[in-house]
Design goal:
heterodimer; A: alpha/beta; D-Maltodextrin-Binding Protein, domain 2; 3 domains; six-stranded mixed β-sheet; three-stranded antiparallel β-sheet; 59% helix; globular; B: 393 residues; alpha+beta; Rossmann fold; OB fold (Dihydrolipoamide Acetyltransferase, E2P); five-stranded antiparallel β-sheet; 20 strands; 27% helix; elongated
């Protein structure tokens, strides 16, 4: 459906192209920012009579694939707006063109901004973090981190809160010690003396309760709004959430005694030109206009954006918006986020090192391990292999298949069943397109490696790498075999609990003497009816070390709070608990259904024959439920084996990927370790093989039992 | 009754020596009297049992019979402990079991659907109750062999219930009950899922088995042939109460109520309205359809001319009128059902009057023909027209 809409859209835009007096602009803005860009477009239309600016809101994540499919055909936008951090990918995909000379003047911007976009974008606005301070708690904002740490504050108030376990927020601290996440040469620069110092400092802050434990975005916001955090490190996007609930002002990040200024990472929103737009004079005119001071003022006043042009800040309207000015000031000390595609592979290892340190690990060892993982993630794909052997095998297989089909086919039979084929044709087409083709495409992908521009056939290299644990220990960290063991443990635990709880509740709820059992049944099916990611996120919150409901309950009975995601056992427990909550209703419903098929007289016969209630359950009810439960268990095992949502959202693989299962591991290879789609596809094929084998054996066992 | 005497003989020998496992003929170890007193049971607002008394002597075969909904199955289930009773008491073998769970009552039950354990083989089904009681494997094997020989199940021991025919399942269900050697057997319409030929066969088997084992049995059925042929004592139930009990033939011959009279006997007794009157110095019961002689010796003082009565004559007791007999009525033949060895003739004495059924030996009757009928005064039943109670003393 989406695809058709997309084709329709392409068709419509190509019709628009016939009208040369149009500029097509893609953006991903919402709310005030969208209003602002629309106003800029209208202002441009006023000065260029007869020209129309076509605005289309497209999500950032969809940009690349849409640009790639549209640009070569000469469709798509003339201009699009995105963060400079993605320029590397866009340039690789050749969907951007250089901005013609004279459109912008480098002197209008801070040097860091100009560094960021280079020749490929018109800087519009900037985003970087600064320090929000609560006026009541910090009338006089501390200038140094040290002063902030030692500030006299009411009990229960954190001097500082920020998402400390995210590399983006740790980068300022790292920069203060002179470090970087990614070096200019594309190496993992975090693993340095500066990195160790920054992590030690973080460890100290966490230990001294300067910052809250296990922070996340909503928690940081909430703490600040409730006055439980005297200051937070956050970006301009926080302003909308704060509203007027708390009096605050924004200042640049503090400096650190004995080190330097904390310098945030900068990202620049820029208007970029497509090769298609480069041929459109009007598009160049439009770029010239958005680069102007006039447009910048509109973006600042209407969209409350931290506009990039220096000369816009002399305008009283925005010069008086103190927080906005503070963010603009922060740009002066900011460091542009590297554009290199390698940066994408650096985030996750950096996060991992920070989290390990926060759990009390040794920073040096954590960083060394993260460097190893970074190096592994950016390792060049295996050398291309000759597809000839595979093609020969494939050709032979097809020949054999064709031969067998020809041998086993009788024309008369086909003719006789022509009518039947007509009735099933649509189903064959739908299943073919929606199930078989993607499956084959996925399987074929597993034989390739590399990214978009360099997608090469590598034979079984991906499989060999996976099954040999990429040359490391077979049961080493993150290896296929270790993950498989975890997955099996995860599946067995879950299915055992699903079945036992489901059985228990099913048997209890089937007793006719129970009052309101209809109500209980409906209530108990509810966890199943709620989308699993909602449940997963709710449980994630409940397992929070400091503010979660589970620890609150435990402390009520005198148990020390547990840091659920810092140990494999507790982290797995949290995951299993969530998934049991999600999964038992299915088994309960199956049990209830199967119980109705058990003859009441058989149960009575057992009673008369001398069974106690317990004996009757084990010797009669359970054996009679088996035939119905067996397929449910097979299904449940498959679902659990592939239960991505819970693992990804609750523990997120914490601690350090130990609770990852095969499918979440595959996801990480595909999306957070340098887009190794072929490698991830090989994981998927292996998962498929494992599950197919499991189903096959379960089915055979079931058949033997029935025979 | 001859078999009953044989049973008594056996009881004497049993009381001296307990049966051992190696003994070939199984014996029931304990004999008991089953005794239910004033049993009441309601399901919601439906009063199913309204003060039932039931006693079964040791080794007796009691058949509970009645139309559906009369409470006979509920009574049986109450004896088994599958239903709790609201009021009254149940004693088995001299022990008050009113509040005991089924497993503590030591009874065995054969269900209408047989209720075999679908996941167990025939052997498993037979051994189930014994295993629960912790009987040793050797004893179980011996007991299973014994029972399967008795019922001809040897070849079926390793089959699952779904691989058996209806008759075979029925036998397994009985075997399961027998293997446990319970103090009492309860049968809940065990033959109603079998076809007619098989039913007759198994019926005889059950009687034979009972005579052989001498076990106290309570048997529920709505089939009067089963009731008549199997029972030592027949308990006719109606609307939650025992209407009449006693040996089957006695009930057949001397039904105490109109309900019992019509319930037993096939085709059912003809019931015709009439009044007592004097005719030629003798007492008769006269109605629009029939006028029958009344033998005062059988009815004693209950007879007063002018009293409204229901006249009951069984189809088997009516004969074609011949010289020297008193003609009681004349019917116009409507339907003739010739079964070969006997013939049922349906007819009416007056247009729009009730149908009268007659059993004849020969089939030489034609539709439309007039058929004069006679009856022996000793075969006439009289019931009070209002209460339905028999007038016989």
């Amino acid at each position: 459906m989406m695809r058709w809409l997309w084709f329709l859209f392409l068709f419509l835009t190509s019709c628009e192209d016939l009208d040369a007096r149009t500029v097509v602009l893609w953006h991903a803005y919402r709310g005030d920012e969208e209003k602002a860009i629309a106003e800029v477009a209208r202002d441009f239309e006023k000065t260029h009579p007869g020209v129309r600016v076509e605005l289309l809101a497209v999500p950032f994540e969809a940009y690349l694939s849409k640009l790639e499919s549209a640009a070569p055909r000469g469709h798509g936008p003339d201009v699009f707006i995105d963060a400079h951090t993605r320029l590397g990918a866009y340039r690789q995909a050749k969907v951007t063109a250089e901005i013609p000379a004279g459109v912008i003047d480098a002197n209008d911007y801070e040097a860091s901004i100009d560094d960021a976009v280079g020749k490929y974008g018109v800087p519009l606005s900037t985003k970087c973090v600064a320090l929000y301070v609560n006026d009541a708690l910090f009338p006089d904002p501390p200038k140094t981190l040290d002063a902030l740490e030692h500030a006299q504050l009411p009990a229960g108030v954190f001097p500082l809160a920020y998402e400390a376990d995210v590399a983006y927020y740790h980068a300022p601290l790292l920069a203060a010690f002179g470090g970087r996440i990614l070096g200019d040469d594309g190496t993992f620069a975090f693993d340095s003396e500066a990195g160790v110092l920054s992590l030690q400092r973080l460890q100290q802050m966490s230990h001294d309760h300067v910052i809250p434990e296990e922070p996340n975005g909503p928690l940081v916001t909430q703490l600040f709004v409730n006055g439980k955090a005297a200051s937070v490190i956050n970006g301009p996007w926080l302003r909308a959430d704060l509203g007027t609930s708390v009096r605050y002002h924004v200042v640049p990040l503090p400096s650190i005694d004995g080190a330097g200024q904390m310098r945030p990472l900068l990202s620049v929103e820029a208007a970029m030109l497509t090769p298609h737009g480069a041929k459109n004079e009007l598009a160049i005119d439009f770029l010239r206009y958005v680069a102007s001071r006039e447009a910048a003022l509109t973006l600042a006043t209407v969209g409350h954006q931290v506009v990039a042009r220096n000369d816009a800040w002399t305008e009283p309207v925005i010069a008086n918006d103190a927080p906005l000015v503070a963010f603009h000031d922060a740009v002066k000390t900011a460091i542009a986020t590297p554009v290199s595609a390698r940066m994408q592979s650096a985030w996750v290892p950096s996060d991992e090192a920070i989290r390990k340190t926060l759990r009390g690990g040794d920073p040096r060892a954590a960083l060394a391990e993260s460097r190893r993982r970074f190096d592994d993630a950016v390792k060049p794909p295996p050398p291309p292999a000759s597809p000839a052997p595979a093609l020969v095998v494939l050709g032979l297989l097809m020949l054999i298949a064709a031969w067998r089909i020809v041998q086993n086919t009788h024309i008369s039979e086909i003719r006789a069943s022509m009518g039947a084929y007509r009735y099933t044709a649509h189903a064959i087409v739908v299943v073919g397109v929606l199930v078989v083709l993607p499956l084959l495409a996925g399987a074929a992908t597993s034989l390739f490696a590399g990214t978009r521009d360099d997608f090469r056939y590598v034979g079984f290299a991906n499989y060999i790498a996976i099954l040999t644990a990429r040359g490391g220990a077979l049961l080493g960290h993150g290896s296929f075999w270790l993950t498989l063991l975890v997955t099996v443990l995860w599946t067995v635990l879950n299915v055992a609990l699903h079945v036992s709880i489901g059985l228990l509740l099913g048997v209890v709820l089937s007793r006719p003497v129970m009052r309101l059992r209809g109500v209980y049944r409906a209530l108990l099916v509810l966890p199943w009816a709620v989308p699993s990611y909602v449940t997963a996120l709710a449980w994630k919150g409940m397992f929070h070390r400091q503010f979660g409901a589970v620890n609150a309950l435990l402390s009520a009975v005198g148990v020390e709070p547990i840091s659920w995601f810092s140990k494999f056992s507790t982290s797995l427990t949290a995951n299993v608990t969530t998934n049991v909550w999600l999964g038992f209703p299915f088994m309960m419903v199956v049990t209830l259904g199967a119980l109705t098929s058990i003859s009441k007289e058989v149960l009575e016969a057992a009673e008369v024959d001398g069974c106690t209630r317990w004996q009757r359950f084990w010797k009669v009810t359970l054996p009679l439920l088996r035939p119905a439960l067996l397929p449910a268990v097979v299904l449940g095992a498959i679902w659990t084996f592939n239960m991505f949502n819970v693992v990804f959202l609750v523990s997120g693989g914490e601690p350090d990927g130990a609770t990852d299962i095969l499918v979440s591991q595959a996801y990480r290879w595909a999306f957070s370790r340098g887009h190794r789609y072929g490698y991830a596809a090989a994981y998927a094929v292996l998962i498929f093989v494992i599950l197919a084998a499991q189903t096959f054996f379960a089915e055979r066992a079931g058949r033997e039992e029935r025979a | 009754m001859q078999p009953a005497e044989a049973r008594n003989e056996r009881q004497k020998t049993d009381s001296t020596s307990r049966p051992e496992a190696e003994e070939t003929a199984p014996r029931v170890e304990k004999k008991l009297r089953c005794e239910a007193r004033g049993v009441h049971k309601s399901f919601g607002k439906t009063h199913v049992l309204r003060g039932v008394d039931l006693t079964v002597p040791e080794g007796g075969f009691a058949v509970l019979v009645g139309s559906s909904g009369c409470g006979k199955s509920t009574l049986l289930r109450s004896l088994a402990g599958l239903e709790t009773i609201d009021q009254g008491s149940i004693r088995l073998a001299g022990r008050d079991v009113t509040n005991l769970a089924p497993r503590e009552r030591d009874v065995a039950m054969v269900f209408q659907s047989y209720a075999l354990y679908p996941h167990l083989t025939v052997r498993g089904n037979l051994a189930f109750g014994l295993e629960l009681r912790g009987t040793s494997p050797a004893d179980i094997a011996a007991r299973v062999r014994e029972v399967s020989e008795m019922l001809g199940l040897e070849a079926l021991l390793d089959r699952l219930p779904k691989q058996l025919s209806g008759g075979q399942r029925q036998r397994v269900a009985m075997g399961r009950a027998i293997a446990r050697r319970p103090t009492m057997f309860l049968f809940d319409e065990p033959l109603s899922n079998l076809d007619a030929a098989l039913r007759a066969e198994v019926r005889v088997d059950i009687r034979r088995l009972h005579d052989r084992l001498g076990a106290t049995t309570v048997y529920v059925t709505h089939d009067q042939v089963e009731a008549m042929t199997l029972a030592d004592t027949l308990w006719v139930m109606n609307q939650g109460q025992v209407e009449q009990s006693g040996p089957p033939m006695e009930i057949y011959e001397k039904p105490k109520t109109r309900f019992v009279a019509t319930f037993l006997g096939s085709p059912a007794m003809n019931l015709l309205e009439g009044k007592l009157a004097e005719k030629d110095g003798a007492l008769v019961a006269a109605g629009d359809d029939i006028t029958v002689p009344v033998d005062p010796a059988r009815f004693g003082t209950m007879l007063a001319p002018g009293r409204a009565v229901t006249i009951g004559v069984r189809p088997h007791d009516l004969v074609v009128h011949r010289e020297g007999m008193t003609r009681v009525t004349e019917i116009v033949v409507d339907v003739v059902e010739a079964l070969g060895f006997e013939t049922y003739v349906h007819g009416w004495a007056r247009q729009a009057g009730p149908t009268i059924v007659v059993r004849l030996d020969a089939a030489n009757v034609k539709v439309g023909e007039k058929l004069p009928l006679a009856i022996d005064a000793s075969k006439v039943h009289l019931f009070d027209a209002e209460t339905g109670r028999s007038l016989s003393s």
